[in-house]
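Margin note: ligand = flavin-adenine dinucleotide.
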Amino acid sequence: MQVPAENVVGAVGGGLKIALQTLTYGRIGIAASGVGMAQATFDHSVERLKPRQAFGKAIAQFQHWQFKLAERATEIENARNLYMKAALRMDAGEAFPEPEAAMAKWYATNLAAEFARDGVQIFGGYGFMSELAADGSHYRVEEIYRDCKIAEIYEGTNEIQKLVIARSIFGKDITG
Ligand SMILES: Cc1cc2nc3c(=O)[nH]c(=O)nc-3n(C[C@H](O)[C@H](O)[C@H](O)COP(=O)(O)OP(=O)(O)OC[C@H]3O[C@@H](n4cnc5c(N)ncnc54)[C@H](O)[C@@H]3O)c2cc1C
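Resulting structure:
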């Protein structure tokens, strides 16, 4: 089937570049979703750690969780800044805002997945439950733990993001 000239997207012969550019842009969106999942885990965790008591005090009073949440708050801030930087470069019209897009994608989605694991742990046995009552209610960390994994896989797996970053360090002649 022939495509009419007015329906051709971009320059003839330049299709691969356009397809790859779309992937780069998509990575920024997936990075944002990683930040969203990490932030949601953070918010739910804080809500739980303050009122829940163990050994006669709030779990938030144990330094282990104070330090853990302090680390995650810093990491979320880093992840947000990274994807915003890539998005600003995209909005400025840069065709390939790399390596920030790749950095943002792997860092934010890796953070979401690592933190989701902690999130379930923070909720203890309830964190693991996908149904707490007949109405199907449950704590959201269980959902995030399940859903976060795909973000490490699609729009280029996180191993491929590292390859993109490595290419910007060593050059294509070395990395391939
Ligand atoms: C829900 C969902 C939605 C999707 N949506 C889309 C979509 O809209 N558009 C689209 O085009 N695709 C989509 N995909 C496909 C997705 O991009 C691929 O699943 C992904 O790129 C991984 O490819 P693969 O599944 O073939 O895994 P494989 O290529 O078999 O890779 C398996 C593992 O090997 C690793 N690996 C491969 N090569 C290397 C290497 N050189 N060095 C180190 N590790 C390596 C990978 O990182 C991965 O961890 C979707 C997938 C899912 C599950």
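The domain at 32-169 is CATH 1.20.140.10 (Butyryl-CoA Dehydrogenase, subunit A; domain 3).
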